């Protein structure tokens, strides 16, 4: 074995203090697909905690494999490092949100902004001084945050060095890797920094951990490195070349690390063993578990949490069979053309059948009931759950508003203005239902007992979508490429939307406090702030798909989900990150809704199907599943 030794030191002391704690709201625990688990650590509660790179969630897994996921503030964005804090909480960095966050073992989270913008925080570790220490890759700084959120930042002497991993050393200092700079750094609790150059050029050190031998151990490109407290570095080439990332001291007195599709082990006397994973994937992080084993995360292309015993036996916790699966249910009436869809107040999902002139109800397990309308050729267009425990819908052809009770009793109410072309309906803040009249350029209100009032909008404004906004007002999309805010007394304010020459369509309230709409230009979804000042448009369909005016719904994960004619199902995060999911039948999609069961439900108009994308699940560990289900499911009653 080749051993190279060096010690080169550079010292600098500097600090920029800042005290900028900021509270944030805490969403409810939930589960999503496509999480990409990253960093993992053991919490003070005896569970393993990990970050999910592609979601705003923190995961917790017990030593027997039971998984819980917690939603965290939307501003946190992408998450990287995580560490147990001296206060009994878990602390993690969120690079996209440029914040440091803490989460209690009960799941309550709060984030604190980093003073330096766009700092790209990456690693975090508890220090010997009762603070948390973290790396900032972009400005090449080390940050310190107290348990009260007060932060101080210290520049690293080498510019553009890209500090990444960080760990507390046995000498009372913090040690960190400089990936771009090819160095190992040391910072004292008072902020004095020393750097040690690696013997290997372009070694790109990443993870770092304190070893049982009183030294620090770190990962490099196809090597494991060791540095003594006085800066002497040794490097140990690995048997197989791979991308090494995470490293941790194991409960067996050895160092464990990730290496390509393997978990590696190196003893303090430099003996290396490698253990291939049973499934494809890259393990980015590893930690000592409370059960005497080593735990690790796996992502890309599969998302799993793994456990390896000291003798190398690996167990992975895969998703339930349904996780990420799309299941399709045939509508009993042939060629019914299912269209709009909504979660019902009865725990079921309700949808329109345009050609069959019926309202459909589907239970979470896929049992479908259908209810014919009294009026023939009614021209069903939209559907929504009402505050009165019933489901309400629009009949464009009949120019009526309909109501269906949970047991299928239907009532219909004529709209005063003839040929108004009813397009959308939503529950309002006042206990009534509100709807749009595109031809009449009006907003309508209907009380639970069927009394209708109409409010004029500007001439030729052609309202399309409607939703209740986070500000307590009604928001509508207008054919003239505008978004309107309407109070419950009918006063309207219009906001023009750029790049929407073809008009805009559906609109929903997002979990981020903004309004999201289907853009007028093909393939786009837009976001507008409640004050109308900030408008952003995102292209959501890729390639050659010309899929205008997708249907939208706020998802159970804090994202907005969309589906369009000829396109896949997708979700867009508050920051604009987009993921897409194929539909087995590849048929044209009509409506989309988040169901009461935590899954995404959608209609397939030409396939005569109701689809369910299973993003909810049981308590077991789970991962993204890109395969198609073994078959369709249909249950009729």
Structural class of the secondary structure composition? mainly beta
Rg computed from alpha carbons, rounded to a whole number of angstroms: 28 Å
Mean pLDDT: 85
Helix content: under 10%
Strand content: over 45%
Largest beta-sheet details: 5 strands, antiparallel
Number of contiguous helices: 0
User: What is the β-strand count?
Assistant: 59
Unreliable sequence segments = 1-33, 617-637
What is the molecular shape? elongated
How far the N terminus sits from the C terminus, by CA atoms, comes to 71 Å
| Largest beta sheet: strand ordering | 1-18-17-16-15
Structural overview:
With 637 residues, the protein is mainly beta. Helices cover 0% and strands 46% of the residues. It is built from no helices and 59 strands. Strands 1-18-17-16-15 form a 5-stranded antiparallel beta sheet, with no helix packed on it. The chain has a 5-stranded antiparallel beta sheet with strand order 2-14-13-12-11, with no helix packed on it. Strands 32-33-34-35-59 form a 5-stranded mixed beta sheet, with no helix packed on it. It is elongated. The N terminus and C terminus are likely disordered.
Write the SSE topology:
Layout (H helix, E strand, L loop, with lengths): L9 E4 L2 E4 L17 E6 L5 E5 L4 E5 L5 E5 L7 E6 L5 E5 L4 E5 L5 E5 L7 E6 L5 E5 L4 E5 L4 E6 L7 E6 L5 E5 L4 E5 L4 E6 L10 E3 L5 E5 L2 E5 L5 E5 L6 E6 L5 E5 L2 E5 L5 E5 L9 E3 L5 E5 L5 E5 L5 E4 L8 E5 L7 E6 L5 E5 L4 E5 L4 E6 L7 E6 L5 E5 L4 E5 L5 E5 L7 E6 L5 E5 L4 E5 L5 E5 L6 E6 L5 E5 L3 E5 L5 E5 L10 E3 L5 E4 L5 E5 L6 E5 L11 E4 L5 E4 L5 E4 L5 E4 L7 E6 L5 E5 L4 E5 L21 E2 L1
Parallel strand pairs: 35-59
Antiparallel strand pairs: 1-18, 2-14, 3-4, 4-5, 5-6, 7-8, 8-9, 9-10, 11-12, 12-13, 13-14, 15-16, 16-17, 17-18, 19-20, 20-21, 21-22, 23-24, 24-25, 25-26, 27-28, 28-29, 29-30, 31-58, 32-33, 33-34, 34-35, 36-37, 37-38, 38-39, 40-41, 41-42, 42-43, 44-45, 45-46, 46-47, 48-49, 49-50, 50-51, 52-53, ...
């Amino acid at each position: 074995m080749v051993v190279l030794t060096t010690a080169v030191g550079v010292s600098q002391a500097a600090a920029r203090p800042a005290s900028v704690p900021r509270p944030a709201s805490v969403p409810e625990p939930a589960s999503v697909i496509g999480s990409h688990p990253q960093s993992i650590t053991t919490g003070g509660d005896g569970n393993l905690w990990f970050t999910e790179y592609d979601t705003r969630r923190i995961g917790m897994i017990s030593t027997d494999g039971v998984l819980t996921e917690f939603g965290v503030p939307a501003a946190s964005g992408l998450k990287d490092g995580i560490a147990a804090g001296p206060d009994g909480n878990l602390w993690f960095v969120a690079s996209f949100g440029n914040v440091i966050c803490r989460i209690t073992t009960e799941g309550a989270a709060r984030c604190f902004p980093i003073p330096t913008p766009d700092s790209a925080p990456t690693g975090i570790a508890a220090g010997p001084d009762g603070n948390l220490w973290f790396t900032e890759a972009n400005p090449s700084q080390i940050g310190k945050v107290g348990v009260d959120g007060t932060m101080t930042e210290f520049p690293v002497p080498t510019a553009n060095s890209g500090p990444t991993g960080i760990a507390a050393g046995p000498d009372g200092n913090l040690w960190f890797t400089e990936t771009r700079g090819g160095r190992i750094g040391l910072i004292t609790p008072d902020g004095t920094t020393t750097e040690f150059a690696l013997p290997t050029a372009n070694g790109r050190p990443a993870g770092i951990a304190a070893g049982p031998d009183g030294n620090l151990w770190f990962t490099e490109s196809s090597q494991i490195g060791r540095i003594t407290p006085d800066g002497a570095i040794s490097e140990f080439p690995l048997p197989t070349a791979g991308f090494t990332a995470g490293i941790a001291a194991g409960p067996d007195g050895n160092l464990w690390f990730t290496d390509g599709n393997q978990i590696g082990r190196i003893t303090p006397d430099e003996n290396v063993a490698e253990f291939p994973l049973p499934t494809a994937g890259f393990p980015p992080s590893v930690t000592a578990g409370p059960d005497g084993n080593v735990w690790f995360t796996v992502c890309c292309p599969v998302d799993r949490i793994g456990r390896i015993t000291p003798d190398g036996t690996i167990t992975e916790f895969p998703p339930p069979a349904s996780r990420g699966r799309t299941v399709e249910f045939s509508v009993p009436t042939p060629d019914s053309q299912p269209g709009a869809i909504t979660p019902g107040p009865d725990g079921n999902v309700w949808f329109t059948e345009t050609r069959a002139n019926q309202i459909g109800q589907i239970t979470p397990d896929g049992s479908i009931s259908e209810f014919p309308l009294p009026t023939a050729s009614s021209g069903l267009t939209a559907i929504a759950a009402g505050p009165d425990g019933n489901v309400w819908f629009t009949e464009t052809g009949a120019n009526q508003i309909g109501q269906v009770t949970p047991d299928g009793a239907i009532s219909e109410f004529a709209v005063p203005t003839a040929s108004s072309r009813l397009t959308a309906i939503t529950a309002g803040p006042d206990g009534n239902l509100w709807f749009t009249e595109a031809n009449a350029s009006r907003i309508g209100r209907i009380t639970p007992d069927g009394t209708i009032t109409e409010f004029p909008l500007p001439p030729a404004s052609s309202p399309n979508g409607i939703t209740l906004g986070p500000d307590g007002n009604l928001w509508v999309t207008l054919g003239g490429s505008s978004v309107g805010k309407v109070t419950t007394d009918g006063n309207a304010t219009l906001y023009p939307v750029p790049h929407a020459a073809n008009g805009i369509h559906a609109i929903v309230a997002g979990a981020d406090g903004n309004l999201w709409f289907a853009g007028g230009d093909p393939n786009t979804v837009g976001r507008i702030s409640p004050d109308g000042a900030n408008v952003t448009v995102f292209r959501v369909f890729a390639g050659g798909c010309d899929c205008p005016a997708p249907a939208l719904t706020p998802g159970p994960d804090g994202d907005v989900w969309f589906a369009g004619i000829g396109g896949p199902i997708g979700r867009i995060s508050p920051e604009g990150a987009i993921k897409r999911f194929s539909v087995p039948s590849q048929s044209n999609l009509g409506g989309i809704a988040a169901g009461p069961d935590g899954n995404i439900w959608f209609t397939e108009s030409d396939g005569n199907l109701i689809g369910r994308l299973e993003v909810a699940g049981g308590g077991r560990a789970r991962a993204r599943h890109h395969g198609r289900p073994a078959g369709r499911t249909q249950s009729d009653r």
